[in-house]
Amino acid sequence: MEDPEGKGKKKRGRPGKQPPTSNKKPRKSPTDKGVALARGRGKANGVAQHNGEGGDPVTLFEVVKLGKSAMQSVVDDWIESYKQDRDIALLDLINFFIQCSGCKGTVRIEMFRNMQNAEIIRKMTEEFDEDSGDYPLTMPGPLWKKFRYNFCEFICVLIRQCQYSIIYDEYMMDTVISLLTGLSDSQVRAFRHTSTLAAMKLMTALVNVALNLSIHQDNTQRQYETERNKMAGKRANEKLELLLQKRKELQENQDEIENMMNSIFKGIFVHRYRDAIAEIRAICIEEIGVWMKMYSDAFLNDSYLKYVGWTLHDRQGEVRLKCLKALQNLYTNRELFPKLELFTNRFKDRIVSMTLDKEYDVAVEAIRLVTLILQGSEDALSNEDCENVYHLVYSAHRPVAVAAGEFLHRKLFSRHDPQAEEALAKRRGRSSPNGNLIRMLVLFFLESELHEHAAYLVDSLWESSQELLKDWECMTELLLEEPVQGEEVLSDRQESALIELTVCTIRQAAEAHPPVGRGTGKRVLTAKERKTQIDDKNKLTEHFIMALPMLLSKYQADSEKVANLLQIPQYFDLDVYSAGRMEKHLDALLKQIRLVVEKHIETDVLEACSKTYSILCSEEYTIMNRVDIARSQLIDEMTDRFAHSVEELLQEAEEADDDDIYNVLSTLKRLTAFHNAHDLTRWDLFGNCYRLLKAGIEQGSMPEQIAVQALQCSHYSILWQLVKITEGAPSKVLHSPRRQCNTFYVFKNWVTTILFIYLFTAFMLLCDLLMIFSHQLVSGGREGLQPLVFNPDSTLQNELLNFVLDHVFIDQDDESQKGDEEDEANKIEALHKRRNLLAAFSKLIIYDIVDMPAAADIFKHYMKYYNDYGDIIKETLSKTRQTDKILCAKTLILSLQQLFNELLQDQGPNLDRTSSHVSGIKELARRFALTFGLDQIKTREAVATLHKDGIEFAFKYQNPRGPEFPPINLAFLEVLSEFSSKLLRQDKKTVHSYLEKFMSESMSERREDVWLPLISYRNSLLTGGDEDRMSVTSGSSSKTGSVRSKKGRPPLHKKRIEGEPAEESSVEGSWMMRNDTLQTPGALQTPQLTSTVLRENRPAEHMPDPDSEHITHTPIRHTEKGFSMQMSWLGQQKMEEVNRKDRTGINYIKSRSNQEQLFRGLMEDDAEPIFEDVMMSSRGQLEDMNEEFEDTMVIDLPPSRNRRERAELRPDFFDSAAMIEDESVSK
């Protein structure tokens, strides 16, 4: 690198080839260099060399890594070594950079003196450890995190200590910069990363030196000007000459430093700021930001800012983040704004767009940067730019929302002239100057038409605008008092918005945590935050105890405003009523609530009143008695009115007019709302509700709204009765809830005739009652509640299922035909209701209240309605599998069978296997197969049972045209083959044997297209099915668990040695010894298979060891005939196969010599079933090599036709088994 200024400085070349200067000390002899050289070569092959006495580290790398010594003393020692022999010292420094990169190689003195940098780097690359991708800068742990800090500090201290002499000797810096430039261009990431970090820190230190030189130059120039301007008699010419000489020397040093910085910037930064590694790019951007802030006169210009602007478009979030933070440091200083004006105009749009960055951390910093730009210049951002940030206050990610709230506060809600505004407020008779700001907040909330979440807006502004949001006196003044001269009247919409915002600020102050949907949960408050919360709660309580009755009185006719205002008492500190002697305000509040109850029948208003009464009636407060009396009086009046209106309605029957119906409905709505939160059983509301419903069933003329409210009130009455019983009420009321519950079920038949919106309520109530009065009611030592348990019969279960099928799984077009054109909001609301229906029914299945086979009708809609209900169905499938794996598998195959039967009814027996309907069933089967997970041992029996049921279904009906034609359901085997990859290899053989029982001899020879499903399914079972090892082992990830070594394979007929571990045998034993107690209800009922092949020579003492890892105790079912052993289907198939092998083995052994001895030995070993590896041929070994592919292949063509293409098949990487095997092979 040559001097760009062309001042005749020496060319930066290889160290060691510079002519020695006159003041340089004579070189040491080789023996004298031994001691110094030991330090430079103190690490050989990556292992630190220590001295023999104290064991202290002797290399720079070890010293810096441990960080036990002060960095300045380490640098001073190196400088002293450099003064003695700069070659040895530089060699030490070069090895320091090499070792910091994780390289095990060491640069020797001969290499340093005789080889170019490129040759040295090439040599070090060859010695680099390629076994691991880690190197010191990327290694985890506190030690290496500290090393990074020490590494950067060492470079900074080195330049600081050398800034007055050594860095100008044209040797040390030339050598270091040349080395780092070469390393930064290496293809080895460790070299490139480490050298770039070192070079950038070196550049930062040089920028600091240049800044100091600039300051010294300015000081020297001022001294020179001052001295020169003196009178001739007082001027000191010698001082002028010294100042001129000093200025010249400083200028030369400045030029030299600039040359070094140019070399680093052009040789390293310009190439590495766009490196392929994001961390290297981030280092460059972070440091250039430091340079521009530290030495703005030299670096804060468009020539350097453009690199930051370009990198704002980087693909990696961490690099974009460094750009934004670097710019924040610049925009914080308002004096730098003129230099940033052109950059702001050029890249402002990009910065504003980054507020929507997919990385939340980047979005937060972008919003903060936009806020700094706004603070520096109001005109820098357009209205459109500001609006892009405004709506982020409604973001669900709280840091983004809070940053946007800070921007909104700076733009709209900060007072520019507080004193003038306070004076204006006093002239208008207002106690607070925040009136205009609160009006502006209301207008902003109303103009945010896409977002109606006041709680989110308040939370976003809480940290920046607490003073404004806690000004409840000003908010109350705006609501209660008439506007003064110069103020606009709040519209009805603005008043509603202000009340909603007020309630949200009260909640935020009282609860001191974000609203639902923001944050992961309630965090523990600090002592200061807790004190602030208590103070705020006392402040709002004292204010609204007096203001709330007045607000309710003014707005009692407006249901929306009243419903919001009635939420305020739940945030009160109710002790203030008694402590402050404010009972009169309590009476005023109770009076207003009573008036609200009498005026309104809206559900939300009545529920708010009921909740308020419930809070005020808490037993922990002394005001409870006063509130309880008021509540009881109100309930008495409503109950009397309800009984009277019911009598009139029942007497007039069909002649009842609208007034009679309204009187019953309005009173019943109020009582239902109160019954939800209060125990009203002593008023016996259930009796009149029963009379209404009974009349409706008999006469069929009861209005639907009354029926729904009566059902809801009856529901609450039943639940309160249950609460009394569980709390230890007298046993004489035990029969009451059961009687009411049974009465409730009678209403169901009538309720099913009303409209969907009301039927939805009845269905939800029925599901809730079935959950409450299920078999779980007696759990936890509550056996006395057994008479209350209600188990729905099959009729009721079918009615529930049919209701779900009729009202949940419907097309949107079908629903829109029932009424007028629905807008998007109504469609979303309808979907929400349908999801609630499905979730309610799914809970009944999960908790074993409705039989699991009913879920088949739900599971079969998984693909078709995936977007609407996929999450609910998937969760239901997961929970039912946890309950009973086998029954869940039977339910899955039943759902596929139902879809297949529907397809047969539509298309007839000649199915088009390429149609989209068949593909849809296969895709659903594939999705079901993926839900079985990776652990095939846990799902072994369930998958085998699934195949058994599928095979039986495929061969259930013979073709009426004759046996030469395929069975009607044979095409179902193509669907069943999707589950073959989930079978263990030894189970594939068993399933294949079971399949052959249904096949005639002619079937196995057929090759027509109609027989392809059978061929495909057989091939999927034969793929790896003749080997008795497992492709996936439970809880094991070792190589030997997935790929069996040849040495570990036993001989064909090798007798197992006693005590030798036998994984296969133990696993097989677990299957044989398990009890299949499954009883399939409904359509899943299958004949019970009981093995009749019991081995007579198997005494009890030869049963498998119960302590074996895979063997479980045999559960025994007691029947009328005694005890009988029952096995799983797979176990029975294995038992039959074993006995067949045993009989063959015995006949074979009898033909040999020494028959008695061999036979005795065989019988001893035969006491436990042996499953031997029968695939030891060359074919088996070939399949053993390719096992990771075979387990996932589904071959749809006959073996004779696809043998050539088999090698071209690839595993299905959506299959978890394929991924596991691929990982095991890659290891």
From TrEMBL:
<comment type="subunit">
    <text>Part of the cohesin complex which is composed of a heterodimer between a SMC1 protein (SMC1A or SMC1B) and SMC3, which are attached via their hinge domain, and RAD21 which link them at their heads, and one STAG protein.</text>
</comment>
<comment type="similarity">
    <text>Belongs to the SCC3 family.</text>
</comment>
<dbReference type="GO" id="GO:0051301">
    <property type="term" value="P:cell division"/>
</dbReference>
<keyword id="KW-0175">Coiled coil</keyword>
<dbReference type="InterPro" id="IPR039662">
    <property type="entry name" value="Cohesin_Scc3/SA"/>
</dbReference>
<dbReference type="InterPro" id="IPR020839">
    <property type="entry name" value="SCD"/>
</dbReference>
<keyword id="KW-0539">Nucleus</keyword>
<dbReference type="GO" id="GO:0000785">
    <property type="term" value="C:chromatin"/>
</dbReference>
<feature type="region of interest" description="Disordered">
    <location>
        <begin position="1"/>
        <end position="53"/>
    </location>
</feature>
<keyword id="KW-0159">Chromosome partition</keyword>
<protein>
    <recommendedName>
        <fullName>Cohesin subunit SA</fullName>
    </recommendedName>
</protein>
<dbReference type="GO" id="GO:0007062">
    <property type="term" value="P:sister chromatid cohesion"/>
</dbReference>
<dbReference type="GO" id="GO:0003682">
    <property type="term" value="F:chromatin binding"/>
</dbReference>
<dbReference type="InterPro" id="IPR016024">
    <property type="entry name" value="ARM-type_fold"/>
</dbReference>
<feature type="compositionally biased region" description="Basic residues">
    <location>
        <begin position="1044"/>
        <end position="1056"/>
    </location>
</feature>
<dbReference type="Pfam" id="PF24571">
    <property type="entry name" value="HEAT_SCC3-SA"/>
</dbReference>
<dbReference type="InterPro" id="IPR056396">
    <property type="entry name" value="HEAT_SCC3-SA"/>
</dbReference>
<comment type="function">
    <text>Component of cohesin complex, a complex required for the cohesion of sister chromatids after DNA replication. The cohesin complex apparently forms a large proteinaceous ring within which sister chromatids can be trapped. At anaphase, the complex is cleaved and dissociates from chromatin, allowing sister chromatids to segregate.</text>
</comment>
<dbReference type="Pfam" id="PF21581">
    <property type="entry name" value="SCD"/>
</dbReference>
<feature type="coiled-coil region">
    <location>
        <begin position="233"/>
        <end position="263"/>
    </location>
</feature>
<feature type="region of interest" description="Disordered">
    <location>
        <begin position="1025"/>
        <end position="1070"/>
    </location>
</feature>
<feature type="domain" description="SCD">
    <location>
        <begin position="269"/>
        <end position="354"/>
    </location>
</feature>
<dbReference type="GO" id="GO:0008278">
    <property type="term" value="C:cohesin complex"/>
</dbReference>
<keyword id="KW-0132">Cell division</keyword>
<keyword id="KW-0131">Cell cycle</keyword>
<feature type="compositionally biased region" description="Low complexity">
    <location>
        <begin position="1031"/>
        <end position="1043"/>
    </location>
</feature>
<keyword id="KW-0158">Chromosome</keyword>
<dbReference type="GO" id="GO:0005634">
    <property type="term" value="C:nucleus"/>
</dbReference>
<dbReference type="GO" id="GO:0007059">
    <property type="term" value="P:chromosome segregation"/>
</dbReference>
<dbReference type="InterPro" id="IPR013721">
    <property type="entry name" value="STAG"/>
</dbReference>
<dbReference type="Pfam" id="PF08514">
    <property type="entry name" value="STAG"/>
</dbReference>
<dbReference type="GO" id="GO:0000775">
    <property type="term" value="C:chromosome, centromeric region"/>
</dbReference>
